[in-house]
């Protein structure tokens, strides 16, 4: 069975590509390598069939998907808080680009006769007004369209993608609302998320200060990438019409102070974190209720936070040429 993975050379995509190739699948990676390089695939020792396509162009999208029976749609404009939400221009860019990519992929899947589509949605679709205080846990039923208030342009694009998929006919769909995934091959530089950003700050010390945004009490739901991939692979068989929706997360709320302290310990450096409380980070709290994923998929996370952080830190050190 031919399987297409859009964004298959990205962070989660590269691990998913490796997993499906090891299972003997005929996998084709579709990506714009001008933005996401093949180095992620090479990092994992993957030799995959790759097609370069600008998914904002429908003809290129259709050509890249034709012949596939199954599609994992992971391609999107992603990044950390400053990259996605730092300016109004960034918000608009994420909204427009992701809407265009999703619309083209969905249409091409229907036109090409794709049987199963797994869509990488996001926890960003959940209402932000509920995320301003600690202890916010979200189940799949907590999203009501008439109360929509997603997280910026990125969140709106993912929410519209879910609405569009709910209206499609003739294709089985699984919508995975993915929380904070971390691990080897995660985005670097200005697109880095909180864990890799803190790891780089620890490695930069004492050349620069170890500054943590917020007061450290804000919490996130961190899931190691291999557990995310396992959930997506199992989820493919559950795709249906109308779509089935699951959260993909750890189900555990972890404070930023906790992970900062753990990263300091792993680094072995004698440093003190500096919390910049003036830089208030929204959301204050966002945790997945993963009961549905456990029930439908027979799945639960296997990699603990300490193990996952150690693996990720070693990888961060390895790609830093200034440390060698």
Give a summary of the structure in a few sentences.
By secondary structure, the protein is α/β, with parallel strands linked by helices. It has eleven helices and 15 strands.
Q: Would you mind describing this structure in some detail?
A:
- The protein has 324 residues and is α/β, with parallel strands linked by helices.
- The chain has a domain at 2-181 and 222-249 and 289-302: 3-Layer(aba) Sandwich (Rossmann fold).
- It has helices at residues 11-22, 39-43, 58-65, 81-85, 88-112, 152-167, 194-204, 225-236, 256-267, 291-297, 305-318, and strands at 2-6, 26-31, 49-52, 70-73, 116-122, 137-138, 172-178, 180-182, 211-213, 219-220, 222-224, 244-248, 254-255, 274-276, 287-288.
- The strands form five sheets. The protein has a seven-stranded parallel β-sheet with strand order 3-2-1-4-5-7-12, with helices on both faces. A two-stranded parallel sheet has the order 6-15.
- Strand 2, helix 2 and strand 3 form a beta-alpha-beta unit.
- Helix 3 (58-65) packs across helix 5 (88-112) and helix 7 (194-204) crosses helix 11.
- The mean pLDDT is 89.
Which helices and strands occur, and which strands form pairs?
Blueprint: E1 2-6, H1 11-22, E2 26-31, H2 39-43, E3 49-52, H3 58-65, E4 70-73, H4 81-85, H5 88-112, E5 116-122, E6 137-138, H6 152-167, E7 172-178, E8 180-182, H7 194-204, E9 211-213, E10 219-220, E11 222-224, H8 225-236, E12 244-248, E13 254-255, H9 256-267, E14 274-276, E15 287-288, H10 291-297, H11 305-318
Parallel strand pairs: 1-2, 1-4, 2-3, 4-5, 5-7, 6-15, 7-12, 8-11, 9-14
Antiparallel strand pairs: 10-13
Helix pairs in contact: 1-8, 3-5, 5-6, 7-9, 7-11, 9-11
């Amino acid at each position: 069975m031919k399987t297409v993975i859009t964004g298959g050379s990205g962070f989660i995509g590269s691990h998913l590509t490796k997993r499906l190739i090891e299972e003997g699948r005929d996998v084709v990676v579709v990506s714009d390598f001008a933005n996401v390089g093949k180095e992620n695939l090479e990092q994992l020792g993957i030799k995959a069939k790759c097609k370069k396509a600008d998914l904002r162009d429908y003809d290129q999208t259709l050509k890249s998907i034709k012949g596939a029976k199954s599609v994992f749609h992971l391609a999107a404009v992603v990044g950390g808080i400053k990259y996605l939400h730092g300016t109004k221009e960034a918000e608009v860019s994420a909204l427009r680009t992701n809407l265009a990519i999703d619309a083209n992929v969905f249409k091409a899947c229907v036109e090409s006769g794709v049987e199963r589509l797994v869509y990488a949605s996001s926890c960003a679709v959940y209402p932000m007004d509920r995320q301003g205080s600690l202890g916010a846990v979200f189940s799949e039923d907590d999203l009501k369209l008439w109360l929509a208030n997603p997280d910026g342009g990125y969140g709106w694009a993912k929410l519209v993608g879910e609405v569009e998929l709910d209206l499609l006919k003739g294709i089985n769909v699984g919508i995975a609302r993915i929380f904070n995934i971390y691990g080897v091959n995660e985005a670097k530089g200005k697109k880095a998320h909180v864990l890799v950003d803190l790891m780089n700050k620890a490695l930069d010390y004492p050349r620069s200060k170890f500054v943590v945004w917020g007061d450290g009490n804000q919490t996130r739901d961190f899931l190691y990438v291999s557990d995310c991939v396992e959930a997506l692979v199992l989820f493919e068989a559950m795709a249906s019409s109308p779509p089935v929706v699951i959260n993909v997360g750890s189900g555990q709320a972890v404070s930023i102070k906790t992970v900062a302290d753990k990263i300091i310990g792993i680094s072995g450096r004698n440093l003190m974190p500096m919390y910049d409380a003036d830089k208030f980070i929204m959301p204050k709290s966002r945790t997945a209720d993963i009961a549905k994923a456990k029930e439908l998929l027979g799945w639960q996370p296997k990699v603990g936070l300490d193990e996952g952080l150690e693996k990720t830190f070693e990888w961060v050190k390895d790609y830093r040429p200034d440390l060698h």
